[in-house]
Amino acid sequence: MYQYDTYDQAIVDARVEEFRDQVRRRLSGEMTEDQFKPLRLMNGLYLQLHAYMLRVAIPYGTLDSRQMHLLGHIARKYDRGYGHFTTRQNIQYNWIKLEECADLLAELAQVEMHAIQTSGNCIRNISSDQYAGAAADEVADPRPWAELLRQWSTFHPEFSYLPRKFKIAVIASPEDRAAMRLHDIGIELVKQDGVLGGRVFVGGGMGRTPMTAPEINPFVRAEDLLSYVEACLRVYNRYGRRDNIYKARIKILVHEIGADEYRRQVTQEFAHVKTLGIDPPLAEFDRISAFFAPPAFETVSDDIDRSDPDFAVWLDQNVKPHKQAGYAIVNISLKPIGGIPGDASADQIDVMADLAKQYSFDELRVTHAQNIVLPHVAKRDLYAVWQRLNVAELADANLDLISDIIACPGLDYCSLANARSIPVAQKIATRFADMERQRDLGELKLKISGCINACGHHHAGHIGILGVDRKGVENYQLTFGGSGAEDVSIGKIIGPGFSEDGVVDAVEKATEVYKSLREGDERFLDTYRRVGLEPFKEAIYG
Amino acid sequence: MKILTGNDLASGAVTWWTGQGWSIHVEDAADVGEQGEAILHAEEGARRVNAPYIIDAIATPEGPRPAHIKDRVRALGPTVRPDLTLKPADPTAGEWVI
User: Fold this and answer.
1) Which residues neighbour A337 within 8 Å (Cβ) at sequence distance 6 or greater?
2) pLDDT of residue A542
3) Residue A144 main-chain phi, psi, to 5 deg
4) CATH 3.30.413.10, chain A: domain bounds
């Protein structure tokens, strides 16, 4: 894992003290809320329905046990005993007091964490593949590139006041586990003739105008990647609309001028940027990469005792192949049946930190699907890990099944929301509580947003649910056919909306149609794409 | 009726204008009639509340209830965590919210 150098630590420490003074001035009345609001947002502090909410950055979703323990400590000391892992691989706390926030940030800084770039019109926390460094199908570890982008983007003077927020994802596998093409910039590291480079996609995103990012460059050499991204940002910063918040994201710019014209301008800008010496010298990149060197794997057996049937089910559903023989990737579901997607208690956070320390070379990952990963677990230890997870109520074997629901906080917490998301997720998960039924349905990604901003990624759900406000009453629209994976697509609204209970019934009917029509190993998404909407619509609306 | 709400500046807690000050209980909210804007202006200046605004409410025997669902959720707490609401010991406390 990357470790701060003195420069990293100094700027984070200085930022904490700067914010401490800003809070003091706000509380004393020297600053109005209008003056203070942009400053608190630059430090990840929002005002939500019930209290201040602090969003803490977890760069590319990677953290160690010391950091994870501190997240649990913050949940206990400054919040109400829990945290919420988000679709941006971050964590947020819902009950923060302004007067305590600087102390909280000072504690975070002691473990090389902060809340910078989790709000505002800047380059947000870089996201990546939660299996980075462990996936058998990756061409390189994407994390050094994500870290390089993190360092480049932190307090970048030119990109701190962009037309709108800006999200970048870096992956290195053909299987997209990070919804890469639904980011403002998505980079897929690839190799051409043994040379490392990046496929660069620009202009994806969800929100009220969902778009998948077109490919802007099929291969940018690795040593040019940072300059190329800088050029992409510069063109956006110059021409992105600042007059209309709903048309300010880069996806609108790329869509309006067209991918070809955007590409032409980026190419032109890149020729200039490349003369500025932005790309790091090889030695610096090697220094960063060294932090992500593979851990000291042992030669261990691939054998696993599957005699415990509950363990075997979890093994088949939540444990994924590792590139190192004798090791596996463990997915910890934060989606208990009837629970709140992405929430974890302070005690659970501590359990996951302890397991990472003992069994996963001190590493954890947060996934955009709001789960946690132990990336490097020896197969001989899997049963012990599962037993500990089971005791902590963290052993739900539902990864990628219908109850592994992404849901935004919705109207239960969020000031932007129009409808509640969490109760819908709870009711659907409860309706499908029978695990055999879930496994029979297979991979089915269901995603719920409580407003058009789409933090719950409903556009990318095989089944998506969007909560809207109909004259003060919650109403839920269904979309089918979305995907955030390598077969990326945007879901389509199927028809009129439903009540909270009605949408649960509609989802159940859709699964029945799927079961009656599926062929072979087809997933729900595959069947939908083959047969189209009509059979589903007929069953749901009759 | 019209009532005023905001969040306490220091703690962020949801608060309601009572006529003399701010309470965390919506039942204490006072009908401000046409005086809402003037009170908001004065209270923002006094730095006791953050981002206050005027909402429609309905008078009930139990006290004012916000007209819109968002403010009803604010008034009690998250519907999915009864233990974190203002009345964690009362399982029926949220029946009027949704």
Assistant:
1) A396, A398, A403, A429, A430, A433
2) 87
3) -60, -35
4) 134-290, 406-541
Cα gap B21→B6, rounded to integer Å: 12
CA Rg value for chain A: 23
Contacts with A50 from chain B: Cβ below 8 Å: 12-14, 74, 77-78
Are A254 and A217 contacting, i.e. CB atoms less than 8 angstroms apart? no
What is the domain extent for residue B59?
2-84
User: A127 with A167: CB under 8 angstroms?
Assistant: yes
In a domain, B15, yes or no: yes
> What stretch(es) of chain A map to CATH 3.90.480.20?
6-110
ipTM over 0.85: yes
Model pLDDT for residues A287-345, shown as the tens digit of each residue: 999 999 999 999 999 999 999 999 999 999 999 999 999 999 999 999 999 999 999 99
Burial class (CB in 10 A: 0-12, 13-18, 19+), A376: buried
Topology annotation, domain A6-110: Sulfite Reductase Hemoprotein; domain 2 (3.90.480)
A27 CB near a chain B CB, below 8 Å? yes
> How many structural domains are present in chain B?
1
Q: Which residues of B touch A (CB under 8 A)?
A: 7, 9-14, 44, 47, 50-51, 67-70, 73-74, 77-81, 84, 98
Residue whose C-alpha is closest to residue A371's, from A393, A404, A346, A338: A404
Question: Environment class of residue A279 by beta-carbon count within 10 Å: exposed (0-12), middle (13-18) or buried (19+)?
Answer: buried
Taking the CA of residue B76 and the nearest CA in chain A, the distance in Å comes to: 9
This prediction has a pTM of 0.97
CA distance B14 to chain A (A): 6
- Kindly indicate whether the domain formed by A406-541 is annotated with CATH number 2.60.40.1180: no
Whether residue B10 lies inside any domain: the answer is yes
Structure confidence by residue, pLDDT tens digits, A455-485: 999 999 999 999 999 998 999 999 999 999 9
d(CA A529, CA A531): 6
CATH pick for A309-391 out of 3.30.720.10, 3.90.330.10, 3.30.70.3340, 3.40.50.150: 3.30.70.3340
Residue of B nearest to A424 (CA): B80
N-terminal to C-terminal alpha carbon distance within chain A: 54
Closest partner residue to A423 (CB to CB) among B10, B70, B80 is B80
Nearest alpha carbon to residue A463 among A480, A476, A475: A480
**Contact yes or no for B23/B30 (Cβ under 8 A):** no
Residue appearing with tokens 């056919």: A481
CB contact under 8 A, B84 and A99: no
CA distance B37 to chain A (A): 17
Closest residue of chain B to A340, computed from CA coordinates = B80
If you count them, how many residues does chain B have? 98
